[in-house]
Specification:
26% of the residues lie in helices and 39% in strands. It is an alpha+beta fold. It has one domain: 2-Layer Sandwich (Alpha-D-Glucose-1,6-Bisphosphate, Chain A, domain 4), CATH 3.30.530. A seven-stranded antiparallel sheet has the order 1-7-6-5-4-3-2, with helices on one face. Strand 6 and strand 7 form a beta hairpin. It is globular. The protein starts with a strand and ends in a 27-residue tail after the last helix.
Length: 179
């Protein structure tokens, strides 16, 4: 889990995340060469976003994610919240799920919580690749996203108040393909 508290209203943070053509290249760490090939807009359940990124050994990789949950800002007992989840349908992982949750802390502050679960292909070789390379790259991505938001949103006061990452490969028997 990775958590960031940002000094911007929920509606502004949500609107930023609703534009993958603009936000994905800006939130990716330098050197990853993220290019959005296509994005179904407006974003909703069933929307697909196709990107290409620089992979290991200089090889370009195509990655297609589908939005499987999409809940724009709405009232809840303790304020406002929003959520969306994307799952990889084509790409380098055997399984990838990225949950994005947004909670209005107050009218000017939003908590963003992201959870990533993934599994690499190739059995024991995948486990080794995860340990040596992939998990570190995912952590670097999430740290960069927390730092990049204020710059991308024009100095709107975004800042990390607390962050941490827990993720990595899940054992095949601990996650069903339908989760």
């Amino acid at each position: 889990m990775f958590q960031t508290t940002v000094n911007a209203p929920l509606e502004a943070v949500w609107a930023f995340h609703e534009d993958p053509q603009a936000n994905l290249p800006l939130l990716a760490p330098p050197g990853q060469g993220v290019r959005v090939e296509s994005a179904d807009l407006p974003v909703g359940v069933g929307s697909r976003i196709a990107i290409s990124i620089d992979g290991p050994l200089g090889r370009r990789m195509r990655w297609v994610a589908e939005i499987v949950e999409h809940a724009p800002p709405h009232a809840v007992v303790f304020g406002m919240e929003a959520r969306f989840v994307d799952k990889q349908v084509e790409g380098p992982f055997a399984q990838w799920r990225h949950e994005h949750e947004f909670e209005a802390v107050d009218s000017r502050t939003t908590r963003v919580v992201e959870r990533i679960t993934y599994r690499l292909p190739l059995g024991p070789l995948g486990w080794l690749a995860d340990w040596l390379y992939v998990r570190w790259r995912v952590r670097a991505l999430m740290r960069h996203r927390a730092r990049a938001m204020p710059e991308v949103l024009g100095g709107s006061g975004f800042g990390v108040r607390g962050s941490g990452f827990s993720g990595g490969m899940t054992k095949p028997e601990t996650r069903s393909p339908n989760e």
